[in-house]
Write a structure and sequence with these properties.
By secondary structure, the protein is mostly helical. It contains eleven helices and no strands. It is globular, with a radius of gyration of 19 Å.
Length: 294
C-alpha cells in the first residue's frame, strides 16, 4: 500500500472522529461544562497510552511543544463545549473545521510546502462553501435547529472564536513537534500535553462546579468519555497523517471532510433545516476537496 493511500486513510479517520467528538459535545446537556471538558481531556490520554503500549521514551525537548498544545487544547475543548450549547451543530462545526486553515497556511509559509493553482481554487471554493452553508435562522415553528438569541450572539461568537484559535494552534504545535522530531515521540508528546490540559481544567471545575458535579448523572461521564476518546483518535490520526502527506494537504482535507459529515449529521440526526443555497455550498465543498486532493 502506497504512502499516499495510508495518509488518506488517516485523514478519513480524523474527519470521522472529529465529527463524532463534536456530536457528543452537542448531546451533552449538563450544567458543569468545565468538568465535562476535564473528562474529555483526561479520556483522550488513554488513546495514546494504549497506542504506545505503555512504553515511553521522554525527552525534555518536547516539553515546550506539549505545554503550548496542552493550553491550546484546554481552551478549544471548554469553549467549543460552550459554543455547541449556545448554537447549532452545523455552523459551530463549520467554523471549527475551518480553523484547520491556520496550520495549512503555516505549512506553506514556514515549511515551504509546494502547492499549485488547483490548491488555491479549491481553497477558494471551500471558503465560498462555508459562506453558503452557514446556518440561516429558520422562522418556521417546526424546525429543531437552535436559534441563537441576538443578546447571546456576541457571547457565542466569543466562544467559537476562542475554540477556532485553540483548535488551529493545536494543529500548528502538533505539526511543529512532529516536524522537529521527524515523527518521533507522538504518544509521549500527547500524554504530556493532555496532562497539562487536564490539570488546567480540573482545579477550576472543582472550585466552580463542585455542587453541580455531585448532582450530575451518567450522561456526564458517557458523553465526556466518548468525546474524549474520539478527540484522542483525531489527534493520533493527524499525527500519523502529516508523516505521509504534507500539512497543506492534510488539514484542508480534514476540514472539508468534517464539514460534509457535520452537515449530514446536523440534517439527519439533529433535524436542522437547510435552504437551497446551503446545498449548493455542500456541492462546492465536495468540489473543493477534489481539487485539494489533486
Amino acid at each position: 500500500m502506497g504512502r499516499s493511500v495510508v495518509g488518506f486513510l488517516f485523514v478519513i479517520g480524523a474527519a470521522f472522529t472529529l465529527v463524532l467528538s463534536n456530536t457528543t459535545k452537542k448531546w451533552f446537556r449538563g450544567t458543569c461544562p468545565m468538568f465535562f471538558s476535564f473528562i474529555c481531556c483526561f479520556s483522550s490520554e488513554f488513546v495514546f497510552l494504549f497506542a504506545s503500549g505503555f512504553r515511553f521514551q521522554f525527552t525534555r525537548a518536547i516539553l515546550p511543544y506539549a505545554l503550548l498544545f496542552g493550553f491550546s487544547f484546554a481552551i478549544c475543548t471548554i469553549f467549543l463545549t460552550f459554543a455547541l450549547q449556545k448554537g447549532a451543530l452545523s455552523i459551530t462545526g463549520l467554523i471549527l473545521s475551518y480553523s484547520l486553515i491556520l496550520p495549512t497556511l503555516y505549512g506553506i509559509l514556514f515549511f515551504k510546502e509546494s502547492v499549485n493553482y488547483l490548491f488555491f481554487i479549491g481553497l477558494l471554493l471551500l471558503l465560498i462553501s462555508s459562506f453558503l452553508i452557514r446556518s440561516d435562522q429558520e422562522k418556521a415553528e417546526n424546525t429543531s435547529q437552535k436559534k441563537i438569541p441576538k443578546k447571546g450572539l456576541t457571547v457565542w461568537l466569543i466562544f467559537i472564536s476562542l475554540a477556532f484559535a485553540g483548535n488551529g494552534f493545536c494543529s500548528i504545535f502538533q505539526t511543529m513537534q512532529q516536524k522537529a522530531f521527524d515523527g518521533a515521540y507522538k504518544c509521549e508528546f500527547m500524554v504530556l500535553a493532555l496532562s497539562v490540559a487536564s490539570l488546567s481544567l480540573l482545579p477550576v471545575s472543582l472550585v466552580t462546579e463542585r455542587k453541580k458535579i455531585q448532582k450530575s448523572g451518567k450522561g456526564l461521564l458517557l458523553c465526556g468519555i466518548s468525546s474524549g476518546i474520539s478527540t484522542g483518535l483525531v489527534n493520533l490520526f493527524v499525527m500519523y497523517a502529516v508523516n505521509y502527506l504534507t500539512a497543506s494537504l492534510v488539514f484542508p482535507l480534514i476540514s472539508g471532510g468534517s464539514l460534509l459529515l457535520t452537515f449530514l449529521v446536523a440534517l439527519l440526526l439533529f433535524k436542522e433545516k437547510f435552504r437551497p443555497k446551503q446545498y449548493i455550498g455542500l456541492f462546492l465543498g465536495v468540489a473543493s476537496i477534489v481539487l485539494l486532493s489533486i
